[in-house]
Design goal:
CATH superfamily: UbiA prenyltransferase
Order of helices and strands: HHHHHHHHHHHHH
Largest sheet: none
CATH architecture: Orthogonal Bundle
Number of strands: 0
CATH topology: Tetracycline Repressor, domain 2
Structural class: mainly alpha
Distance between the termini: 55 Å
Strand content: under 5%
C-alpha cells in the first residue's frame, strides 16, 4: 500500500474528509447560524446550539459524500476529477456508502434532540440534499437544486430554535439558494465541454459560458434583493446593512475574477471569496443582534 493510501479507519476517514472538502462546511454553517441568531434573538441554549451544529455537519457531510458516490463514473471520465478518492481507488463505494449512512443518521439524531418538527422534516432535508446529485442527468437547472440543498440551512436552524417556520428565514433561504446556484454556475463552466460531450445538463453546457456567467450575475443580484427583503419582515440595524454591502462587494469581486475566455481563477472565486461571503454576513448579523 502506497503512502498516499493510508490504512485503518482513521486513514480512510481522513481521505473521506478530504474528498468531501469538510472545511467547506463554512459555506452553509454561517447561514444556519444566522437563522439561529434571528430565531432566538441572540444565542439559544448551549444544547440547542450544539445539536444545530451536529445537524449541519451531518447533513453537509452526507450530501457531499453521496454526490461523490453517485457521480463516481462521471468523475472517472473527467480529467479534472479523475483523482478523487473513489476513481483513484483510495476508497471503495461501500466505504463511502457507510459514511453517507452514518452522517445521515447523525442528522436524524440531532433533529430528534431538537424538536418534533425538526425530526419529521429531517427525511425531507435528506431528500433535497441527496436528490441534487441526480439533477445534472435531466435538468439544466441543477444549479438551483444545489442552491436549495444549501438554502435549507437558515430555515432549518429557525425551526430548530422555534419549532416552527416564518417568512424571514424563508427569504434568507432564498438568498442562499441564489447565492449557491450562482457560484455553482461559475464552477461548472470548467466542465462545459465535458458535460456537453456526455449529455449532462448544466447552464454552461446549454447556453455557453458567456451567457451562463451573465445568469450567475443576475442570480447574485437576487441575493442582495432578498437579503434586503429580510429587513421588511425582521427589523435589522446598520451592522446588517453593512454586511449586505460587504457581500455585494465580494460578489462583484467574484465575478471580476472570471471571464468567458479566462477561467484560470475559478478556484479563487469559488472557494476563497464564497467562504468570506457567508462568514462576513454572519458576523455582521451577529453584531446587529447583540449590539
Amino acid at each position: 500500500m502506497s503512502p498516499s493510501q493510508p490504512s485503518g479507519v482513521l486513514g480512510k476517514l481522513r481521505i473521506i474528509l478530504e474528498m468531501i472538502k469538510f472545511e467547506h462546511t463554512l459555506f452553509a454553517l454561517p447561514f444556519a447560524m444566522m437563522g439561529m441568531l434571528l430565531a432566538a434573538r441572540g444565542l439559544p441554549s448551549g444544547r440547542t446550539l450544539f445539536w444545530i451544529i451536529v445537524a449541519m455537519v451531518g447533513a453537509r457531510s452526507s450530501g457531499m459524500a453521496f454526490n461523490r458516490l453517485v457521480d463516481r463514473e462521471f468523475d472517472r471520465q473527467n480529467p479534472r476529477t479523475a483523482g478523487r478518492a473513489i476513481p483513484a481507488g483510495l476508497l471503495t463505494p461501500g466505504q463511502v456508502a457507510l459514511f453517507v449512512s452514518a452522517t445521515a443518521a447523525l442528522l436524524v439524531l440531532a433533529a430528534w434532540q431538537l424538536n418534533p418538527l425538526a425530526l419529521w422534516l429531517s427525511p425531507v432535508g435528506l431528500g433535497v440534499i441527496w436528490g441534487y446529485s441526480y439533477t445534472k442527468r435531466f435538468t439544466h437547472f441543477c444549479h438551483l437544486f444545489l442552491g436549495a440543498s444549501l438554502g435549507i440551512a437558515p430555515s432549518a436552524a429557525w425551526i430548530a430554535v422555534r419549532g416552527s417556520l416564518d417568512w424571514p428565514p424563508v427569504l434568507l433561504s432564498g438568498a442562499v439558494l441564489f447565492w449557491a446556484g450562482g457560484f455553482d454556475i461559475i464552477y461548472s463552466c470548467q466542465d462545459e465541454a465535458f458535460d456537453r460531450g456526455l449529455g449532462l445538463h448544466s447552464i454552461p453546457s446549454r447556453l455557453g459560458i458567456a451567457r451562463a456567467l451573465l445568469i450567475s450575475r443576475c442570480m447574485h443580484l437576487c441575493v442582495i434583493a432578498l437579503l434586503l427583503g429580510v429587513t421588511a419582515l425582521y427589523p435589522m440595524g446598520p451592522y446588517y446593512f453593512t454586511g449586505v454591502g460587504v457581500v455585494a462587494g465580494l460578489l462583484a469581486y467574484e465575478h471580476s475574477l472570471v471571464r468567458p475566455t479566462d477561467l484560470s481563477r475559478v478556484d479563487a472565486a469559488f472557494f476563497t471569496v464564497n467562504g468570506f461571503v457567508s462568514i462576513a454576513l454572519c458576523l455582521f448579523t451577529a453584531l446587529d443582534v447583540f449590539l
